[in-house]
Description:
CATH architecture of the largest domain: 3-Layer(aba) Sandwich
Distance between the termini: 61 Å
Oligomer: single chain
Number of helices: 14
Radius of gyration: 22 Å
Strand content: 15-25%
Amino acid sequence: MKLKNETLSKNFLIYGFGKSGISSFKYLKKENRCFIFDYIVISPGININRCQLSNYLKKNKKKVITDFDIFYKFNPEVLTITITGTNGKSTTSKLLYDILKKHHYDTRLTGNIGNPILEEKRVTKNTIFVIEASSYQLAYSKYFKSKFSIIINISPDHLERHNTMKNYVLSKLKCVIRQNENDVAIITNTNLLKDLLRTKNIKSKIIYVSKNKYEYLKNKLSNDNFKNSTNFQNLNFLFELSKHMKLNLKTVIKTINKFKPLKFRQEVIHQSKYLKIINDSKSTTLSSTVPFLESNEKIVWILGGLFKKGDKFNLNKKYFKNLDAYIYGKDRKVFLKLFRGKIKVNLSKDLRNTLKLIPNLKDIKTKVTVLFSPSAASFDQYKNFEERGRQFNMLIKRYLPIE
């Protein structure tokens, strides 16, 4: 296989055979490349420090690359927009994809959402890739860079892998550090990011976006899903990008107002006069949930799982009186300690038993929201957040009769 850029060597070992690993194998095999050990294509789910080949990978860390790197080396001319951050990456990426489709661009949605990046076919110089990138993917990459790099927000997450907040943020900044003079980075306005960027030789144009930069557009939004602080904050980055790409603002607003939440992401699964039930199984941190707790209405909050290292409960105390928390899972006592003296707490070992504890809401006469927003990783009891979300939908019908 002849590479367009010979900085990639001849032979590859693929470690991790999930979606990205399989797509890398097929992509490279198509080019008749053999697989030995000149480069190691690693799946983002692999933790180099805790795997069977840990010692080998550490010794050969300079050889580790990702499917993102392979894509860039074969397609350096393709326009890419990389979206990373802590909360709302998938929703922001899908919304941008919809906006670009409405502008009649040949657009692909890849990375953590959509197809693996190497599965896309019939790619031309006019194709635009919207890429949702996790800190894991970016941390392992060696060559990948993007025309537009967007960092929507930053809060503690995945510290069990990155160990420190600085390492976590530096992994996100990789998509900015490799940019050149013709590229643009649109990033959240925080002191930590600014301080770290000052230590790097940044060549691209940096645009810092405050959470309310486009506050004047808020009255044009009719979609309730973008009324909370985090979701509207993330819209600011798309408004900024739209300006640089000269997109039609009316089309952008119209697309936002018609956008439906992704499955298990702030998904309303029931709504009646007094009762709303939301499945937000994708939530894995308290920071992703807190904006939905900022309500003057009664909230029955169901949460639990594996507590994320470094996570904090930064909710204004004026909302405490409206909350009843039902906590399940391995780290329920960790959450109990965090909430003690603040909000009412009920404990149970699993989701099934938790729902049995909730009083019958069938005949309520005041507005109540049942919010399933776990604020924790799912791996103590589920394969992933999708399995967790599906079980909640099934159990809610059985143990919380609403019809």
